[in-house]
Amino acid sequence: DIVMIQSPDSLAVSLGERATIDCKSSQSVLNSSNNKSYLAWYQQEPGQAPKLLIYWASTRESGVPDRFSGSGSGTDFTLTISSLQAEDVAVYYCQQFYTTPYTFGQGTNLEIK
Amino acid sequence: QVQLQESGPGLVKPSETLSLTCTVSGGSVSSGSYYWSWIRQSPGKGLEYIGYIFYSGSINYNPSLKGRVTISRDTSKNQFSLKLSFVTAADTAVYYCAKISRDTSGPFNPFDIWGQGTMVTVSS
Question: Is the pLDDT of residue B65 over 80?
Answer without folding.
Answer: yes
